[in-house]
């Protein structure tokens, strides 16, 4: 099948970007978006042209590195599916693909389809961790966690940090991402020890780098991990809890 690709080209953050049009004549419906880009880059290299830069790692929907805008939507047309798992057979009209980097003020373009998502890393550095005593590992059953709590924690820990929720939000908010981290750690015994400090640190860093939540819910439709809107509500809940507790934690 013949695919026309409009790819965003930008040499660096300060350069002016533009769309350039390419054609891939030997695509198949089974190809993923990244495989189409691989094929395009093979052709460009054969013609001594600069290949299109894009991020990828596992290509199994686990790492979140592959996130791009596809026809104006983060990742592509299939809901809750990362770019690497979007295949041409899923597109109602695969004759034209418009590919560009994730669009958000917090994600400056590095080159072509590659963006700098270190703003998400700063949220994790601020509070997305737990403090534990160093030394010999404790027994796995030494600290009991209720089944429902562990299942909830695992559901929210599934966030892969791809940044699609930020790109989907009109305000460039990261509440779904931040809330997933807050709920995940608040449900576990070790995470509760620093619950208030974590809430203050994560929400403070999030508000510094990202916009306010729009409450429209576009973020949940593009999240590959299917993180629910409960994560957004958790941001304000955890922040209020940290503010009004008498004993700081």
From TrEMBL:
It comes from the Bacteria. InterPro entries: 2Fe-2S_ferredoxin-like_sf (IPR036010), 2Fe2S_fd_BS (IPR006058), 4Fe4S_Fe-S-bd (IPR017896), 4Fe4S_Fe_S_CS (IPR017900), Beta-grasp_dom_sf (IPR012675), Helical_ferredxn (IPR009051), SDH/FRD_Iron-Sulfur (IPR050573), Succ_DH/fum_Rdtase_Fe-S (IPR004489). One of its GO terms (biological process) is respiratory electron transport chain. It holds the Pfam family Fer2_3. One of its GO terms (molecular function) is 2 iron, 2 sulfur cluster binding. PROSITE patterns: 2FE2S_FER_1, 4FE4S_FER_1, 4FE4S_FER_2. The keyword Lipid metabolism does not apply. Residues 150-179 form the 4Fe-4S ferredoxin-type domain. Keywords: 2Fe-2S, 3Fe-4S, 4Fe-4S, Iron, Iron-sulfur, Metal-binding, Oxidoreductase, Tricarboxylic acid cycle. Its cofactor is [2Fe-2S] cluster; [4Fe-4S] cluster; [3Fe-4S] cluster. Belongs to the succinate dehydrogenase/fumarate reductase iron-sulfur protein family. Its EC number is 1.3.5.1. This is succinate dehydrogenase. The keyword Ligase does not apply.
């Amino acid at each position: 099948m013949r695919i026309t690709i409009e790819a965003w080209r930008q040499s660096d953050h300060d350069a002016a970007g533009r769309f350039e049009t390419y054609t891939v004549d030997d695509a198949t419906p089974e190809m993923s978006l990244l495989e189409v880009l691989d094929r395009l880059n093979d052709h460009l290299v054969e013609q001594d042209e600069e290949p299109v830069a894009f991020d990828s790692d596992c290509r199994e929907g686990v790492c979140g590195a592959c996130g791009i805008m596809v026809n104006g939507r983060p990742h592509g047309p299939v809901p809750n599916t990362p770019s690497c798992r979007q295949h041409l057979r899923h597109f109602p009209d695969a004759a034209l693909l418009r590919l560009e980097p994730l669009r958000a003020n917090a994600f400056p373009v590095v080159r072509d389809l590659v963006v700098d998502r270190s703003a998400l890393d700063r949220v994790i550095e601020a509070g997305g961790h737990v403090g534990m005593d160093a030394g010999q590992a404790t027994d796995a059953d030494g600290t009991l966690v209720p089944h429902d709590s562990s299942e909830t924690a695992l559901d929210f820990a599934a966030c892969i940090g791809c940044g699609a929720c930020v790109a989907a939000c009109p305000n460039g908010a990261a509440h779904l991402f931040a809330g997933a981290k807050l709920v995940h750690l608040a449900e576990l015994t070790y995470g509760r020890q620093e619950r208030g400090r974590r809430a203050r640190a994560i929400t403070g860093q999030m508000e510094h780098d990202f916009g306010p939540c729009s409450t429209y819910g576009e973020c949940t439709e593009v999240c590959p991990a299917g993180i629910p809107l409960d994560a957004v509500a958790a941001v304000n809940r955890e922040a209020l809890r940290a503010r009004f507790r008498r004993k700081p934690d």
